[in-house]
Fold this protein.
Amino acid sequence: MKKFIFITILICISAAGIFAQNPRVPAKITPRNVPFKTVTEISDADWQTLAATLEKEDWKQSAALAADYLQILKTDNEKKQIAQLRYIYFFSLAGQILNANTRGNALEGEKAWTELDRVMETLINKEFLLPPRPFTTDCEKKLNVICQVKDTPNAFRTTATNKEGSGIHSFDYVQFDELVSIKEFDGKETFIGGILYRADYYVDKSKPWVLRLFFKKGFVRVVVK
């Protein structure tokens, strides 16, 4: 199987917080000072800036950067930067919701929730690429790893959280058209992705998770360093 070479390897992240109630106030993404100009690739420097905000778990800024980059990058490239940015955008908005609810900031939570709901409508049936995570056959009580779905050999799953692992940004499920041999991937950093066809929101504030994402026409590749 061919292996993707990704120059920009995203940081595997982990989660915190609780979910927001129904949104009312639109989210405000930090505006740019200059008009958008389209590009064919996000530069390494700009990508590293985004990676740094994710590492710091500055979800508001990472969401703003992802939104900006999606505005200027109109056609995906061999690095699948658009597919990556779509997931980062969701992940960052979910992080905002979790943080806002943990801090009792209902207004900020509702803003992020509204933006997530708006963006979700535009990205159903679009391709996503998840950040690299280790594949393992031992999935018991593990977060931020890729596992085969129990009793569904043609599907993989992951639980994406923030560093502390105290809240879940999303449960991700990727279904493949054919059975996938896991021998090539066990114990290795792995990319998975596919076409988003369904998203569930969790609105119970007593539970620390935000999204459940379902992808079809899945693909999987080992990270080539």
User: Anything to note?
Assistant: The longest helix spans residues 81-102. DSSP finds four helices and seven strands in the chain.
